[in-house]
Amino acid sequence: MFKVLGISGSPRRGGNSDILLKSFLDGVRRGGSDTEAINLSDYQFQSCIGCERCRKNNRCEGLQDGMQLIYPKLLESQGLVLVSPTHNYNVTAWMKAFIDRLYCFYGYTEERPRNWWSTLADQGRKAVLGVIGEQADPEEAIGMTMTAMKLPIEALGYEVIGELPVTGVFDKGMIRNNPDNSERAEQLGYELSQALA
Length: 197
Description:
About 35% of the residues lie in helices and about 20% in strands. It has helices at about 15-30, 65-75, 95-100, 140, 145-155, 180-195, and strands at about 5-10, 35-40, 80-85, 105-110, 115-120, 125-130, 160-165. It has a 5-stranded parallel sheet, with helices on both faces. A two-stranded antiparallel ribbon has the order 4-5. Strand 4 and strand 5 form a beta hairpin. Helix 1 packs across helix 6 (about 180-195). The chain is globular. The termini are close together.
């Protein structure tokens, strides 16, 4: 059985991002895969400090913090669901720090400019992304948020099989006002599970 790790980048517990993540993972379980959900704000960790110590063995050794608890969960999960609300047209600081700390999975050649590869590539890893924005207009609501998650996740070797932007949502729990959001998320979660199988 494949496992899917769901990650919420929202600092607001039980809010729209967590609700959306639950819908994604409900679909994953319906598709027959195991799931685990975490909220990044539950972990004490900091941004990448660029120490480059990870270049020796593809492990983050420069910072001993909450990311050391998240890395094993990521490695044992073939699937990934990332959900972030939009903060200032971008992902939250928690999601950005998380993505930056995945730098340890890259390898580099010595020549300049350097070629690079990901140690997570070519493993059949797949992902689904969800973004929540307050404004009704998608471009204004989510800005660069989806792109800020998609590009680095793809570079790491994940195939992004689905994206769900949810707009016009702000008040806590407001996402429940439109059942289509949950249905779409659950369907994408199901498709993620099926793609892994």
